[in-house]
């Protein structure tokens, strides 16, 4: 099942993607939650209802897809998790997962443009498989990690390289508003099976920049969940972008950072595709 968050008629709610249609889950079954983290929190019975809901279908072309989780409780990303990316960064393979936060507010729709910041032009892409957590959990052993995964999504871990690298922590450079496009929905874990054999590709303006497979993850999805939950509780709707393979713009010779007007497309086998253009940060971001 592919779950989406969409806006239609000025109201945002959740749906099930069926080919070119979206089943409006609120209209199809009034007993279901209308927001994604609530649906995931409601567990297997609610997900079965969503899977079986009928009618109330809208054309995909008539809705606006939002970030599948509008405001994830946490976005916990992983750095340096593919050997070819570690090599292109000129770094050593990490002994422990390199974890950093992207702010919840950086979550951004799968097909909307993201911002070239007013403060920098060192803008870059990172195609990544995102894990979506489905169950509140702590101290999850690796061999039980599948019990807490709701599904998977495609993430662009957009990065502002000068802000990322000029100080010891990634927090600001990885967290500008709009810099976590994700989607197009959440593909439930039962559809994916083992998430460690999925082709992952990124194109910029149609030119292939990244081509790898999630089998190349240094710390795999289940190990990451064991590691993260050693320290803190994960909750439904938390997103874990698992790291990017080689081929980011800053590592090209010469570097090929993003420009206004560029279009970044990321596809992951079985999970879907997102596509986002780059626009200048608009005047409307001044909120004071
Ligand atoms: Zn990344």
Secondary structure blueprint with pairings:
Layout (H helix, E strand, L loop, with lengths): L1 E7 L2 E8 L2 E4 H4 L7 H7 L1 H9 L4 E3 L4 E2 L9 E5 L3 H6 L9 E5 L4 E2 L5 E3 L6 E2 L2 E7 L15 E8 L2 E2 H5 L14 E9 H4 L6 E6 L2 E7 L7 H11 L7 E3 L21 E6 L3 E9 L8
Parallel strand pairs: 8-14, 9-19
Antiparallel strand pairs: 1-2, 1-5, 1-14, 2-3, 3-4, 6-7, 10-13, 11-12, 11-17, 12-14, 15-16, 15-18, 18-19
Bound molecules: zinc ion.
What is the structure about, briefly put?
With 288 residues, the chain is α+β, with helices and mostly antiparallel strands. It has helices at 25-28, 36-42, 44-52, 83-88, 161-165, 189-192, 221-231, and strands at residues 2-8, 11-18, 21-24, 57-59, 64-65, 75-79, 98-102, 107-108, 114-116, 123-124, 127-133, 149-156, 159-160, 180-188, 199-204, 207-213, 239-241, 263-268, 272-280. The chain binds zinc ion.
Instruction: Tally the structural domains.
Output: 2
The CATH superfamily label of the largest domain reads: Fumarylacetoacetase-like, C-terminal domain
Shape: globular
> Over the alpha carbons, how many angstroms does the gyration radius reach?
18 Å
Which hetero compounds are present in the coordinates?
Answer: zinc ion
Give the helix proportion (percent range).
10-25%
Specify the CATH class of the largest domain: Alpha Beta
On the 0 to 100 scale, the average pLDDT is 97
List low-pLDDT spans.
Answer: none
Describe this entry's structure for a reader.
This protein is α+β, with helices and mostly antiparallel strands. It folds into two domains: 2-65, no CATH class; 75-280, Fumarylacetoacetate hydrolase, domain 2. Helices cover 16% and strands 34% of the residues. The chain has seven helices and 19 strands. The strands form four sheets. Strands 1, 2, 3, 4, 5, 8, 11, 12, 14 and 17 form a ten-stranded mixed β-sheet that branches. A five-stranded mixed β-sheet has the order 9-19-18-15-16, with no helix packed on it. Strands 6-7 form a two-stranded antiparallel ribbon. Strand 1 (2-8) and strand 2 form a beta hairpin. The radius of gyration is 18 Å and the shape is globular. The structure holds zinc ion. Zinc ion (ZN) binds next to loops.
